[in-house]
Write a structure and sequence with these properties.
The structure holds two protein chains of two kinds. By secondary structure, chain A is mainly α. Chain A is built from ten helices and one strand; from the N terminus they run E-H-H-H-H-H-H-H-H-H-H. In chain A, helix 2 crosses helix 3, helix 5 packs across helix 9 and helix 8 packs across helix 10. Chain B is 66% helix and 3% strand. The chains are: A mainly alpha, B mainly alpha. Chains A and B meet through strand 1, helix 1, helix 3, helix 4 and helix 7 of A and helix 3, strand 1, helix 4, helix 5 and helix 13 of B. Strand 1 of chain A pairs antiparallel with strand 1 of chain B, so a sheet runs across the interface.
Chain lengths: 206, 366
């Protein structure tokens, strides 16, 4: 299935006795104890958000899959070093962030911009055409993807963690090791840049 | 609060990052200031747009396989982890002996020996599974276990004869369900052929020969009439049983495997239930692959649970099986209606809650 922002409509998980057994704490402890099936449970739980996050950073499908694989392999190797089992998710995203950054710095980035002067975008503005909703969504998907790639690394990192992964500022600080001030500034600027690029679509939404 | 202060904190307010007092101040200001409220509206509109974002990437079942392969090539690291644990255990036990608290150390050692003995006993009970299977096929009482010695070659001969000359009872569904059915039908040629009457409903398929041989009534696996409902009455071959033997007898034996199966099934159902249904088709390739993997294990566990007299476990597995089959039978890109139908079945059976409760109980008692 196409990966979407999964947390948008999902209710916040309610902590009940039943979920304690599968809690991140118990899964991490079980993996450290040699229970390899528990690691697959960790994969089942976190693979989707991680591959979405990595894809948002690197922008390439095949590369995102490879980096997700690398993330889980590193996680398995280093699970003994998890300081606090309750932050397994944050820890995994931290690994994913490092893996993605290494990949970005290792390759030449191709910048693809969503050109607002293209006829299609212009037509959206003047309302003369009524594009099919599906085509519009597809175009929007491409534009969001391209717009993300035009952000610099730090802003893209903070923006995707906040907007798509719905992390709190504190969690973002833990994952990125950025200061709170930098997070707020980068997030604000990223929002402005994304708004500028996606303005035609935002006006259609109005 | 003035507009300048409000605008500086609007984003943090929208993200829910402010303390209660500041949040209240901003909310009060926004209620009275259209200009600042329009900023908030813009953030909300953007959030809606981002929620609709669909990435052009799928979670491939091959990803986990690739990870497993890579991890399997790291035995040295695993050994190091295990020897580290063993070394620590040895040092701890040595400390007990050396310390003056000999009585405490001796008591601990006795407790450990008892625990090991219990786990060995539990694992030995599992070996009756094979005997019981063969006994059932020879129309003897499976529960007694007093069928005499049963060699592996006997069991293999019986099971292989059962899987020969398979004729699918129903050709309506040539999908994955048929592949499972292909494992199981007894040879119905000869004098039994005249007595065979196929009983087929929307919910289960059995043969009269099997009913006679096993001396039991096969109850329908599911009573609801949702269009995607199907159940499987299957009997694994010896190859499947021996292949799965390590799964049946690993850490914690049947209990351990059932607990892991419940956890993984629960995760699959939750994931499927949370599927975002947008557009004309939904890609469920990953869930389908998961369901197929779990379905085979479900069949083995259900039969084993039945023979062990684990009524509640067998009943839960029976309710889970048709749902796994439904998901396994879905095409990689399916319609939203099919997804909703399966989800309503998951909800109606309260499967997630049942699996959760049972696996929690197992975790506590083991």
């Amino acid at each position: 299935m196409h990966i979407q922002d999964q947390h948008a409509d999902a209710p916040r998980p309610v902590r009940t006795i039943g979920t304690l057994m599968n809690s991140a704490e118990s899964l991490a402890a079980r993996v450290r104890g040699g229970d390899e099936a528990a690691f697959q449970l960790i994969f089942d739980r976190y693979a989707r958000p991680l591959i979405s996050f990595i894809y948002d950073q690197v922008g390439e499908r095949t590369l995102a899959e490879e980096l997700t694989q690398e993330t889980f392999v590193r996680a398995y190797r280093c699970i003994g070093s998890v300081r606090d089992d309750g932050n397994l998710s944050t820890w995994l995203f931290g690994i994913a962030k490092n893996v993605a950054r290494e990949a970005i710095r290792a390759r030449v980035r191709r910048r693809r911009e969503c050109d607002i002067e293209t006829p299609q975008v212009t037509q959206l503005n003047d309302g003369r055409l009524q594009p099919d909703a599906h085509l519009l969504q597809k175009e929007l998907n491409g534009c969001i993807h391209d717009a993300l790639q035009t952000l610099d690394e730090d802003k893209r990192l903070v923006f995707t963690l906040r907007v798509f992964q719905e992390r709190s500022y504190e969690e973002i600080a833990e994952i990125t090791n950025f200061s709170m001030a930098k997070i707020k500034t980068d997030l604000h600027r990223a929002r402005l840049e994304m708004r500028r690029t996606l303005r035609p679509y935002l006006e259609v939404e109005k | 609060m003035n507009c300048t202060e409000c605008r500086q904190q609007t984003e943090a307010y929208f993200d829910g990052e402010l303390d209660a007092r500041t949040t209240e101040s901003i909310a009060t200001h926004l209620a009275a200031c259209d200009l600042c409220a329009s900023l908030l509206d813009e953030l909300e509109r953007e959030a809606e747009v981002y929620k609709s974002y669909e990435r052009d990437i799928e979670l491939s079942p091959a990803l986990w396989t690739a990870i497993e392969t890579r991890l399997a090539s790291e035995p040295a690291k695993r050994q190091a982890r295990q020897s580290h644990f063993t070394g620590r255990l040895r040092a701890w036990l040595a400390g007990l002996i050396v310390a003056p608290r000999v009585a405490f150390g001796a008591t601990t050692a006795v407790v450990l020996v008892c625990l090991i003995a219990v786990s060995l006993y539990q694992s030995r009970r599992g070996t009756t599974t094979l005997r019981e299977i063969v006994s059932a096929s020879r129309e003897t009482e499976p529960a007694s276990g007093a069928s005499g010695s049963v060699t592996k070659s006997d069991a293999q001969a019986v099971l292989e004869s059962q899987s020969k000359n398979y004729e699918p009872v129903s050709r309506k569904n040539e999908s994955f369900e048929s592949a499972i059915h292909a494992r199981i039908r007894p040879n119905i040629k000869g004098e039994n052929e005249a007595k065979v009457r196929v009983i087929s409903t929307r919910n289960h398929v059995v043969t009269r020969a099997e009913l006679t041989r096993n001396r039991r009534r096969v109850e329908p696996q599911s009573t609801n009439n949702l269009p995607l409902a199907n159940s499987v009455e299957s009997f694994p071959t010896l190859a499947a049983i021996t292949e799965r033997r390590n799964e049946v007898e690993p850490q914690g034996g049947f209990e351990g495997l059932w607990r892991r199966h419940a956890e993984q099934s629960q995760l699959l159902l939750r994931s499927f239930r949370n599927t975002h249904v947008r557009g004309k088709s939904v890609d469920v390739a990953y869930e389908r692959a998961q369901a197929r993997r779990l379905l085979t294990r479900n069949v083995v566990l259900r039969r084993d649970a039945g023979r062990r007299g684990r009524v509640l476990t067998a009943e839960t597995l029976s309710r889970l099986e048709p749902v796994l089959l439904d998901i396994a039978n879905l095409p990689a890109k399916t319609s939203p209606e099919d997804v909703r139908a399966v989800n309503s079945r998951i909800g109606a059976g309260e499967l997630v809650a049942t699996l959760n409760a049972q696996s929690t109980f197992l975790a506590r008692t083991n």
